[in-house]
From TrEMBL:
Gene Ontology MF: a single term: protein dimerization activity
Keyword Membrane annotated: yes
Sequence ranges assigned to domain Anoctamin dimerisation in this UniProt record: 19-234
Residue intervals passing through the bilayer: 248-274, 329-349, 413-438, 458-482, 505-526, 625-648, 682-702, 781-803
Family, similarity comment: Belongs to the anoctamin family.
Membrane topology recorded in Swiss-Prot or TrEMBL: Multi-pass membrane protein
Underlying gene: ANO6
Keywords, sorted A to Z: Cell membrane, Glycoprotein, Membrane, Transmembrane, Transmembrane helix
Organism: Lates calcarifer (Barramundi)
Pfam families given in the database record: Anoct_dimer, Anoctamin
Full protein name: Anoctamin
Domain Anoctamin transmembrane, chain residue ranges per copy: 237-825
Length: 848
């Protein structure tokens, strides 16, 4: 019987029961509210809403909480007729016939004795039968493969249909204005929660009949730390949580497997650099007392900075070499490899995604009419003629109104992006100001705390580390602020469907995050040290701060520092947010709602004590991984170990996400999804940009091209007399000479107490020496290096882009076997659901 307005039903003391008290009707959804007499308007809305649900055929049953007497739990049941109606409305695809196409044997079947240990336990997770499916039509019920009506619609399908009804049931009507939807009632506090039920406890197998114990199996074979080495049971994840969450974990698992290959090559590049670092002529010459010890470098700031010996950076140079080991031929090979890797990753993912689309019945999901969002429907007040169907329909705004809303949204996003750029300028000014402090005090040993590390800490390194930490803090603060702004803008634009809403929000958030996370890295890679002038005429920022120079070894160590701090800090912060916060919240909630041990807590109340999954929970998981993907691909030439760190992080990320969603959160409402949505073109854009950024890092940030030009030169320069095809004398040729008498009065360093008179100093550039007819102008070596850099970028980019194009063309997006199955399914659908009706019509006419 339906609930009505009488007394609530008593709990039947079955803690894992998934049914009404009669033990027959399955619970498809739970609504929770506080039973208070003070708020009459909430009670009226609730009663009207529940009456609307019952008019739509839904059955309800209320039960009072065993923990808090004020709490009421309303159990929602979808009868067979209602299920059939809304399965047709939502175009849910259901079985019509077992799959009669023979599957091709796996090429890895010969290694099954080894690989079986890396797959979930087949006794717990049995392989399900494959069926050809078709969109459900209740008028053709006899053509669908129905063995048991109670099992025909899976629990996730039932929950999805229940939520669709709850989102559209009215709770108040005033004149022509109709207010509807469980979302509004939750926001207004009329209901405290609405969720589908987990089927059992995650760590205890249910003893109830008809309970599949899927949550327990997922925890044992997927979320438990002991299963970290096993493949994910994607079909069970999809069945339990829906296609949207299933496709996320499928993508994350595929990305992690592909990272394993990149990590192996990156580790090989790192080992190659580590083994060859001792043979580095540049490092030896810097540390040689007879070479680096006799080279006096020009001050790097005005007046208060001192002259310094090149070998004072020797220890720091060794440390930087051991940390990053990038500037060698292996890095170039690895950068090209990663450009090809990212193409293979995207192409193979398209194939894998096509297989999942077919297996999970989402091939034609986007072609079907996706229902509008309740928030959109609630504001449809303008009448218009549909340009396709010609039928009158209602929309929330006119064409002009939509343009205004979109324009306001674009303007707001641009304003916040400019705000980020302003913060980058501020951090740059901080760099210049603090570099001056470190340059004057670090070398005069005035910072006593750093005295034990004075051999290892250079002004550049100290400035880079502190600036990177400040940059990370600014990034996190701006993220929190912009998140709310982006959601507000997207709500204001009022997209029609949920897919449109998520795609719009995705684009806004990624544009912001791209600028927020990567702008400091782009500054170090392509701006720092590129416009510094020379000691006589240095370049100033804002007319006050002298632009900072790179270390004699280049800016790549600073780029690596920035990347490692942001990547590491982001991973730690995300894990704290994802794991610790919901765990602590659940712990506090359980502590505050303690009950005597003899009391039995029902399934719906156990789930209420868990945290609700945030509305945009999955969105942030994608965003985290895509930002990581950008770090791995855009700047990999500066940090070959980035894929290794990403691989380790992702191995934890999969299990942390699985543990969190299985144990700490209520069961989410299952949703359909055909693919990863707007993230796919974003990944493709990053892949294209990565080729250019890595080529430019090697050309302009690394010291590789100048060294190669020096190595292959034939002593044609007056400053370049060296044995052919060797690197001896390179450090001397890469530093220009400056006459200290040419300093301007403003930049001339103050006289030190030392009796040593310094007549010339060296600086990092390729210019003619003093006394030359073209003194301090760029020399021929400089122009040869520039030409070599430009040629390198053009050649590498064209080769890699050509390989990417060939691979994209050669690798088909949809496997041939999947195409066959899709055609077979369409043919069967046409024969079974349409031609059968024609035959029945012919028989009827013959009888007449």
């Amino acid at each position: 019987s339906n609930r009505g307005q009488g007394e609530p039903e008593e709990f039947n003391d079955k803690p894992d029961s998934l049914f009404f008290n009669d033990g027959v009707r399955r619970i498809d959804f739970i609504l929770v509210y506080e039973d208070e007499d003070k708020k009459d308007f909430e009670k009226r809305r609730r009663e009207y809403f529940e009456a609307s649900l019952m008019k739509m055929g839904i059955e309800l049953e209320a039960t009072r909480s065993v923990v808090d007497e004020k709490l009421m739990f309303v159990k929602v049941h979808m009868p067979w007729e209602v299920l059939c109606t809304y399965a047709e409305v939502l175009h849910i695809k259901l079985p019509i016939q077992p799959n009669d196409l023979s599957s091709r044997p796996s090429p890895w079947r010969f290694f099954s004795c080894i690989t079986k240990h890396f797959y979930p336990n087949e006794e717990l997770i049995t392989k399900e039968s494959e069926f050809f499916t078709a969109p459900f039509e209740k008028d053709r019920l006899e053509y669908f493969y129905i063995k048991d009506k109670d099992l025909f619609f899976t629990p996730s399908m039932r929950s999805r249909m229940a939520y669709y009804i709850l989102s559209r049931a009215p709770y108040e009507i005033r004149g022509h204005i109709k207010k509807f939807g469980i979302t509004k009632l939750l926001d207004g506090g009329v209901y405290k929660a609405a969720y589908p039920l987990h089927d059992c406890r995650f760590n205890v197998r249910s003893t109830e009949e008809d309970c599949p114990n899927e949550r327990f199996v997922l925890y044992e074979e997927w979320a438990h730390p002991k299963s970290f080495y096993k493949m994910q049971p994607l079909d069970l994840i999809r069945k339990y949580y829906g296609e949207k969450i299933g496709i996320y974990f499928a993508w994350l698992g595929f990305y992690t497997k592909m990272l394993a290959l990149a990590a192996v090559v990156g580790l090989g590049c790192f080992i190659y650099g580590y083994k060859t670092q001792e043979t580095s002529t540049w490092s030896k010459e810097v540390c040689d007392p007879e070479i680096g010890g006799k080279i006096v470098m020009c001050p790097q700031c005005d007046r208060f900075c001192k002259y310094w010996r090149l070998n004072s950076t020797c220890e720091a140079s060794k440390v930087s070499g051991k940390l990053c080991i990038f500037d060698n031929f292996g890095t170039l090979v690895f950068a090209v490899f990663m450009s090809i890797w990212v193409t293979l990753f995207l192409e193979f993912w398209k194939r894998y995604q096509a297989e999942l689309e077919y297996e999970w019945d989402t091939v034609e999901f986007l072609e079907q009419e996706e229902p509008p969002r309740p928030e959109y429907e609630a504001k449809c007040i303008y009448e218009r003629k549909n340009p396709i169907t010609g039928v009158k329909e209602y929309v929330p705004f006119t064409t002009c109104g939509r343009c205004v809303r979109v324009s306001i949204g674009i303007g707001t996003v641009l304003f916040w992006i400019l705000l980020i750029l302003a913060s980058i300028v501020a951090i740059t000014v901080y760099r210049l100001a603090v570099f001056f402090v470190f340059s004057t005090k670090l070398r005069t040993q005035e910072i006593k705390e750093l005295e034990p590390f004075k051999e290892y800490v250079t002004p550049q390194m100290a400035t880079s580390v502190t600036a990177s930490l400040i940059s990370f803090v600014v990034i996190m603060i701006l993220n929190i602020l912009y998140e709310r702004v982006a959601i507000w803008i997207t709500d204001f634009e009022l997209p029609r469907t949920k897919s449109e809403y998520e795609n719009s929000l995705t684009l806004k958030m990624f544009l912001f995050q791209f600028v927020n996370y990567y702008s400091s890295c782009f500054y170090i890679a392509f701006a720092k040290g590129k416009a510094v002038g020379y000691p006589k005429e240095p370049v100033y920022l804002l007319g006050k701060y002298r632009n900072e120079e790179c270390d004699p070894g280049g800016c790549l160590i600073e780029l690596t520092t920035q990347l490692s701090i942001i990547m590491g800090g982001k991973a730690i912060w995300n894990n704290i947010q994802e794991v610790l916060i919901p765990w602590v919240k659940n712990l506090i909630f359980r502590y505050c709602t303690r009950v005597p041990s003899q009391k039995v807590i029902p399934r719906w109340e156990q789930d209420y004590q868990l945290q609700p999954l945030p509305k945009l929970g999955l969105f942030y998981e994608y965003l985290e991984m895509v930002i990581q993907f950008g770090f791995v691909t855009l700047f990999v030439a500066s940090f070959p170990l980035a894929p290794v760190l990403a691989l380790v992080n992702n191995l934890f990320e999969i299990r942390v996400d699985a543990w969190k969603i299985t144990t700490q959160f209520r069961r989410v409402v299952p949703e359909k999804a055909q693919d990863i949505g707007a993230w796919q073109p974003i990944l493709q854009g990053i892949a294209i940009l990565a080729v250019a950024t890595n080529a430019m890092i090697i050309a302009f940030t690394s010291d590789m091209i100048p060294r190669l030009v020096y190595y292959w030169s034939f002593s044609v320069y007056p400053y370049g007399n060296h044995p052919n095809n060797t690197m001896e004398g390179y450090i001397n040729s890469s530093l220009s000479i400056f006459n200290t008498s040419d300093f301007s009065d403003f930049s001339k360093p103050e006289q030190s107490n030392s009796s040593l008179i310094i007549s010339t100093c060296r600086y990092r550039d390729f210019r003619f020496p003093p006394g030359h007819p073209r003194q301090y102008e760029y020399n021929g070596y400089y122009w040869h290096v520039i030409a070599a850099k430009v040629a390198f970028i053009i050649v590498v980019e064209h080769i890699v882009y050509f390989l990417k194009f060939v691979l994209s063309y050669v690798i088909p997006d949809v496997p041939y076997s999947v195409k066959e199955q899709i055609k077979r399914e369409k043919y069967l659908t046409q024969v079974i659901l349409h031609e059968t009706n024609l035959k029945a019509g012919d028989q009827t006419s013959e009888t007449n």
